[in-house]
């Protein structure tokens, strides 16, 4: 999703965003070593078409933004887990920390994702954003 983070052997996903069209960065991602590109189709007729750019397949999918989470879920495997979502204006960090501590008291493990970081309470990793995109979220879940 971010061509600046592409490393050799990774797949680049090019979405049409509200401000930036990620498809503008396909060539850059390929130059950085992307092994494939999944790009949002311009229209329904382009769905399923494949271009080859510098021997790299570029697959176009309609409504990629709506199915990206499902695609990421197929790429990242993670154990069957119970998830709890906490929403609201204030207090989310406090509530998630308390829930994780309570779960720990009964002998289970709990991780958190939020402004204080991601992971288990005794080993939180700094987060660039409070909520990541679909691929980042699936990756985080797989690492817990």
Automatic annotation (TrEMBL):
Superkingdom per UniProt: Bacteria
Organism: Vibrio alginolyticus
EC number: 6.3.2.13
Name of this chain's protein: UDP-N-acetylmuramoyl-L-alanyl-D-glutamate--2, 6-diaminopimelate ligase
One function term, GO molecular function aspect: ATP binding
Annotated keywords: Ligase
Keyword Ligase: yes
Residue ranges of every copy of the Mur ligase central domain listed in the record: 86-144
Cross-referenced Pfam families: Mur_ligase (PF01225), Mur_ligase_M (PF08245)
Mur ligase N-terminal catalytic domain: residues covered: 2-44
Keyword set includes Transferase: no
């Amino acid at each position: 999703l971010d061509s600046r983070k592409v490393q050799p052997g990774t797949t680049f996903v090019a979405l049409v965003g509200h401000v930036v069209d990620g498809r503008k960065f396909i060539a850059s991602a390929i130059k950085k070593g992307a092994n494939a590109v999944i790009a949002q189709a311009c229209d329904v007729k382009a769905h399923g078409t494949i271009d080859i750019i510098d021997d790299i397949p570029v697959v176009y999918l309609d409504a990629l933004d709506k199915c990206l989470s499902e695609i990421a879920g197929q790429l990242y495997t993670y154990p069957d887990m119970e998830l709890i979502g906490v929403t609201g204006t204030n207090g989310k960090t406090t509530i998630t920390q308390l829930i994780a501590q309570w779960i720990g008291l009964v002998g289970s493990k709990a991780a958190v994702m939020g402004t204080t970081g991601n992971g288990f309470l005794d080993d939180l990793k700094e987060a660039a954003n409070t909520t990541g995109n679909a691929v980042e979220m699936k990756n985080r879940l797989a690492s817990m």
